[in-house]
Amino acid sequence: MMYGRRPVREAKGTILTQSVAFKAGGRLEAGCTLGPSEIAALVMAGVGEVRVAELDPHDVAQDEAARRVSAAMVPVPSDANLDVGRVMAGAVHITATCAGVVGLDTAGLTRMNRVDEGVAIATRPQFHRVAKGDVVATVRVLPYGVKRSVLSKVIEDAHDTIRVRAVLAETASLIQTVIGGDGGTAKGEAFVRARLDRLGVRLVETLVVPHREEALAEALLSARGEVVFVLTAVETIDRGDVAPEAVRQAGGVITRFGLPLDPGSRFFAGGLGAVPILGLPGCARGSAPTGVDWLVDRLLCGVSITDDDIAQMGVGGLLSPEA
């Protein structure tokens, strides 16, 4: 690509690199291609020369390059729950068409960003929660053109590198346990409902039962939601505590207790048949982000979470500034 100053009458077909404002009103923006009408306007305004760029035969223009990269990243937008926007000034915004969490091929995206400094792909973090219409990624081609060989190399790793994992559950139940009465449950229900609303999951019922294994087991068996949340009057200390034991008495299993996240460490997960059961720690009664949010969003969107995944969360898992 050539950059430099050129007499206006010799600049046809080049790309204007500095905006030109006309005293009589109007302007030509940087990035526009100088055709006959633009040349005539410049001549009429008395502009003698302009700073321009000119692509060589092996270059792909900025907008076309950005369009090709974004199309390769999201070949079938409906399958990825994404919308690929129109290219403007070398940039394409990719937005979510539904609520969910972001799913990335992080290795592929890293390789794409290593190819050439002129092609830049920025995304939300892996598993970041998004709503419909949220921008998930931006593709930018920085110069006015890139080599075809560079573009081909970027596109090699682009296929299906980004998607939104949609919410799989439409309904949820909340079971709260109490000691000596039914007070103090409204706050927990409000914040659990708010967390579910963000992903469009409907809280169909809140069951309040005594903090005893038999009562909680009975409630688990009667719950109607596709996912069941348990919020106990006393935080769960280990796998033998009231809530995990109630899951087992109901015929379910506990698959995980404890997280290397603070707040949110006293969380447990299990299942009763095909119904996931998620035991929430006391911090779920507040609006501040907690480690629970990291897991609940993913589980509602069908993202499998291994023990290795959880172990890796500990790095950066101290979420509270007061800890």
UniProtKB/TrEMBL annotation:
<dbReference type="Pfam" id="PF00994">
    <property type="entry name" value="MoCF_biosynth"/>
</dbReference>
<dbReference type="InterPro" id="IPR001453">
    <property type="entry name" value="MoaB/Mog_dom"/>
</dbReference>
<protein>
    <submittedName>
        <fullName>Molybdenum cofactor cytidylyltransferase</fullName>
    </submittedName>
</protein>
<keyword id="KW-0548">Nucleotidyltransferase</keyword>
<keyword id="KW-0808">Transferase</keyword>
<dbReference type="InterPro" id="IPR036425">
    <property type="entry name" value="MoaB/Mog-like_dom_sf"/>
</dbReference>
<dbReference type="GO" id="GO:0016779">
    <property type="term" value="F:nucleotidyltransferase activity"/>
</dbReference>
<feature type="domain" description="MoaB/Mog">
    <location>
        <begin position="190"/>
        <end position="296"/>
    </location>
</feature>
